[in-house]
Fold this protein.
Amino acid sequence: MKTMRIQNWLMILAMLPLFTACGGGATEQDDLNATGTADTTQDARLQKTKAIFYSVPSPMETAGLLKKAGATYNSKMLNDVKNVDRYTSASKQALNLGVYGADLSYASVFNQTQESMFYTSCTKKLADRLGVIHAFSDSTLEAMEKNMNDRDALLDIISETYWSMDAYLKENERENISVLMIAGGWVEGLYIGTQVAKNNDTPELRQRIAEQKLSLGDLIGLLGSYEGDDGVVKSVKSDLEALAAVFADVQVGGGGASLSEENGVAVIGGESAAASLTDAQLVAIRDKAAAIRNSYIN
C-alpha cells in the first residue's frame, strides 16, 4: 500500500480564528440562524473537523512544497487588508475570518513579518466583531506555540478549545459561525495552492491539490450538519458541492483511496498510484475555486 503521512499541526496559524470563542457577545448584525444539536452530532462534527485538518498540508510542509516549486511570495493573490471594513454581516465576517487566517499562514510561511502583522490585525478585528475573541487566552496561544511539533498534544489543545468554542456558540445560538470560518479558510487555501501552480507547477503540488478532494467531502458533510434553515450555510454547501463535481474524476490513490488516523497521524492511501491531476482538471479546479473565493471576499 502506498501511503502519505500528514503532520497534524495543520495550518494552525490559518485556523486560529476558529478557536477564539469563549467570550464576547453576539454582534447586532449577526445574520446567522441558530441550530440546536445533540452530543452525537457534536462529536461527529469534531471528527469531520479533525479529518479536514489532517488532510491539509501543515505550514512547514507548505513551505517545503513552495520552495521546491521555486515559488516566491505574491501578496497580490491575497485578500486585500483594506477589505476588512467592508464585511458587515456576520456571515461575511466569519467567511473572511477564515480567508484572512489562511492568508496569514501564507505570509508567515514566507517570513513576511509586516504582512503577517497586517493579516493578524484583520483576523483580530473580525473575531472581535463576531464576539469570539476575548476568552482565547494567552496561555492557549502559548500552549499551541510550544507544542507545534507535538501532534498528540496539539490535537488535545485543539479538541478542548473546539468544545469550549462550540459550547459558547451554542449557548449564544451562533453555532454556524464556526463552520463558515472553516469553509472560508479551506477555500482560500485551495485558491492559493492553485494560483501558485499557475507559474510553479510541480507533481508534489498537484498531488496536494488533488488530495483536497478528501477534505472537501468532509467539509461538505460538516456544512450539512449545520445548515438547518440557514440560507448562508446552504449556499456555501452548494458552492462546495459544485466544486466537488469538478473534483469528481480526480484520482486520489486509486479506487481504494482512504483517509484514516494511525497514532494521531493522518494517512492517505490506496492500492494504486498516488493522487494526481490532469492539466484540464487543474485548470477547472483553479477556476471554480477562484470564482467561489472571489464571491466570498467581494
Q: What stands out?
A: The beta strands are 2-6, 258-262, 265-270. The longest helix spans residues 176-199.
